[in-house]
Design goal:
By secondary structure, the protein is mostly beta strands. Strands 2, 4, 5, 6, 9, 10 and 11 form a seven-stranded mixed beta sheet that branches. It has a four-stranded antiparallel beta sheet with strand order 1-3-8-7, with no helix packed on it. The chain is globular and about 40 Å long. The protein starts with a strand and ends with a strand.
């Protein structure tokens, strides 16, 4: 059974950093794309980044470009989201999700989701 588990969230001050992990089990990432999404209270879930595993090609939302970096560790069947220069507006529950074939930043394109991890940016 395909399963995704996020970890690494927490409370950080503005300007700080966090690294989120998305560990996959029940399947290998090779032929998938993994996306990171976030949902702030009262807002829609939005795509922030995506990586096509076998090519390594990456995509970022404009709001996070230059501050967030998505990467993969194939041997660990894990995808990471390095988050630097965090801002209060980055506060949200962060989810990873899997889809086959290429990347997308649209929630409806992804069929498998993790449970989410809370990121709070506050002084």
């Amino acid at each position: 059974q395909l399963q995704l588990v996020e970890s690494g969230g927490g409370l950080v001050q503005p300007g700080g950093s966090l690294r989120l992990s998305c560990a996959a089990s029940g399947f290998t990432l090779d032929n998938y794309a993994i996306g990171w999404f976030r949902q702030a209270p009262g807002k829609e879930r939005e795509g922030v980044s995506c990586i096509k595993i076998n090519s390594g090609r990456t995509y970022y939302a404009s709001a996070v470009k230059g501050r967030l970096t998505i990467s993969r560790a194939n041997a660990k069947n894990t995808v990471y989201l390095q988050m630097n220069s965090l801002k209060p507006e980055d506060t949200a529950v962060y989810y990873c999700a899997a889809k086959d074939n290429g990347c997308s930043m649209f929630r409806s394109d992804f069929g498998s989701w993790g449970q989410g991890t809370q990121v709070t940016v506050s002084s």
